[in-house]
């Protein structure tokens, strides 16, 4: 079992601590939180060992799980990697592109593995459909959330939209050609609602909308490709696939047939792929353990997370124009 320590015991950090303690692939050694009064409270309540310095925790483990505020991701990752420890970093990978690139360089230099917590890659509805997404040419995403003061220290693009950016980059096999976007600050000092249009070199277009001031929560993505439409509900963990094939010569009484202006007939097929429920956070942590033990590439690499951050900042830069 890999010895693991958690940096940061906030809302998400506590979830990581609980899941790592349950995991059969890790031995949870303990955690560090800069608020030692709070850390002692967590330690007494849940029984996790509280370390009073980051250095002591890093020294005691094989893997460091960084669940601190984004501003400190780089500093924590740098300290862990330079001690030869593998790092799991919550999204986004870091606060700046330069920091992310240095994390990559350090991981290569010290020959350690890194994975970033883009958890929607492990969403069971996405897992059930991702192999059906083939060369999508239009993608539409809506990620809407009710207002929560937690996370408003960063633009909604880094808080919410980056999930969809990462998912889109994972299925579109092409480079980004152009980005246009607009954002509005309603409650926070940074934009609370944003819309972005990403154009890829292969002609694919992605339209993304994110809001943290909505009346209801929604996390839906739709992929449109030749002869197919795939809908993924990340919140409800449901999916639907609509496919079109050439209509048979003699359609059945209940077959749904469409005919275009040129007289070409297509039959429509509806399906709801089986979704195997999982704990996405546990899965992302355990697949990272597998990557370390088997010396394979993590599912969400440091490079991929850096590319998602790069696109996110290109979107944010559009707000300033």
UniProtKB/TrEMBL annotation:
Domain (GFO/IDH/MocA-like oxidoreductase) ranges: 156-217
Top-level taxon of the source organism: Bacteria
All copies of domain Gfo/Idh/MocA-like oxidoreductase N-terminal, residue ranges: 2-118
Coiled-coil blocks: none
A Pfam family assignment: GFO_IDH_MocA_C3
SUPFAM superfamilies the UniProt entry points to: Glyceraldehyde-3-phosphate dehydrogenase-like, C-terminal domain (SSF55347), NAD(P)-binding Rossmann-fold domains (SSF51735)
GO MF entry, a single one: nucleotide binding
UniProt-listed PANTHER family: BILIVERDIN REDUCTASE A
Full protein name: Oxidoreductase
Organism of provenance: Flavobacterium seoulense
Taxonomic lineage: Bacteria, Pseudomonadati, Bacteroidota, Flavobacteriia, Flavobacteriales
